[in-house]
Design a protein that fits this description.
297 residues, mainly alpha, 12 helices
C-alpha cells in the first residue's frame, strides 16, 4: 500500500509539472487575456450589488457580526485599502438600503455579472464545444454567487469565534510563549491563500460544462493560489513604494483595483489551463498492459 501511494504521488508530480508547462502554452494560444479583462470589468460592476446583497442577508440572519466585518474581510483579499470601496461600504452599513422585490431582482442580476464572466472563461479554457444555455448559465452564476456568500459568511463566523477564543486565552499564553506572536501574524497574513485555493478548486470543478474529476482540479488550484499570494505581496509592495494613491487621489485607486482584479483573473485562468492540461495528460497515460497470450506447448 505505501509503495502504491508513493508511485501515485510521483506520477501526479510528473503530470503536474508537465501540466504547468503545458498550461503556459495553452494560455498563450488562447483568448484568456480578453476573458481576464471581462472579469475585471464585471467585477467592478458587480462588486457593490454583491456587497449590498451580503449586508442585506446578514442583517436578516442577525448573525451578530459587526458592521465593519464584511468590509474587513473583503479588504484582506485586496493588496491595499481602496478608498472608494471603503467609503461606499461605510455608507451602505450606516444607511442600509431596503430592497423591494424589483430592487432585489435587479441587485441579484447585477451581482451575477462577474460570476457569469468567470463561468464563460472556465468553459473556454476547457475547450467546451457546447456552451451552457442562457438560463442554465444564469443558474450556474447564481449558484456560484450563493456559494461565495456562504463561504464569506462561514469565514466571518469562524473569524469571530477565533477572536473570542483569542481574547480569552491568547493574552495569557503570549506571556509564556512570545513566539506565538510570530505564528499569529503569519496565519493572519496568509489565511486568505487557502481560502482562495479552496474557492478556485470548487470553481474549476463545478463551472465547466464537462465531466471533471475532483482530484484533477487541485494541481491547478494550488498553483493559482501560490501565484496569487506572490502577486499579492509584490503588488502590495509596488503600490506602497510608489504611493500612487496618495499622489493622484481616488481615481487612481479605481484603476489600481481594476489592475489587481485583472492580475488575479489572469492567474485564475492560468490555473484553469493547468487543470485542463493535467486532466488531458492523465487521460493520455497508457493503461495497464494486457496479459500476454499463453504460448503453445
Amino acid at each position: 500500500m505505501p509503495e502504491r501511494l508513493v508511485t501515485r504521488v510521483r506520477r501526479a508530480g510528473r503530470l503536474g509539472w508537465r501540466a504547468i508547462g503545458r498550461g503556459v502554452v495553452e494560455f498563450y494560444n488562447s483568448d484568456n487575456l480578453t476573458f481576464a479583462s471581462s472579469i475585471a470589468y464585471y467585477a467592478l460592476l458587480s462588486l457593490f450589488p454583491f456587497i449590498l446583497l451580503l449586508l442585506t442577508l446578514f442583517s436578516k440572519l442577525a448573525v451578530g457580526l459587526g458592521d465593519d466585518a464584511v468590509e474587513h474581510a473583503i479588504q484582506r483579499a485586496l493588496p491595499q485599502q481602496f478608498k472608494f470601496l471603503t467609503e461606499q461600504m461605510s455608507t451602505l452599513t450606516q444607511a442600509p438600503v431596503q430592497l423591494n422585490v424589483l430592487g432585489l431582482i435587479l441587485t441579484i442580476w447585477g451581482a451575477m455579472g462577474v460570476f457569469g464572466a468567470i463561468t464563460s472563461a472556465v468553459n473556454h479554457a476547457w475547450g467546451v464545444e457546447k456552451d451552457l444555455g442562457f438560463f442554465k448559465h444564469k443558474l450556474v452564476s447564481m449558484v456560484m454567487m450563493l456559494c461565495a456568500g456562504l463561504l464569506l459568511l462561514g469565514t466571518l463566523l469562524l473569524t469571530t469565534a477565533l477572536e473570542v477564543v483569542k481574547a480569552r486565552w491568547f493574552e495569557g499564553a503570549i506571556t509564556n510563549y512570545p513566539s506565538l506572536l510570530v505564528v499569529n501574524d503569519f496565519l493572519y497574513r496568509n489565511a486568505p491563500t487557502p481560502l482562495f485555493i479552496l474557492a478556485v478548486g470548487l470553481v474549476y470543478y463545478f463551472a465547466p460544462n464537462a465531466k471533471v474529476r475532483l482530484r484533477d482540479v487541485w494541481v491547478g488550484a494550488i498553483v493559482a493560489g501560490l501565484l496569487w499570494r506572490l502577486a499579492f505581496g509584490g503588488f502590495s509592495l509596488l503600490v506602497r513604494e510608489t504611493r500612487l494613491t496618495t499622489v493622484h487621489g481616488s481615481i487612481v485607486t479605481v484603476v489600481i483595483f481594476l489592475i489587481w482584479v485583472y492580475m488575479s483573473a489572469v492567474i485564475f485562468l492560468y490555473g484553469c489551463e493547468v487543470t485542463a492540461a493535467y486532466a488531458r495528460l492523465r487521460k493520455q497515460l497508457p493503461q495497464s498492459a494486457p496479459a500476454a497470450p499463453a504460448r503453445d506447448a
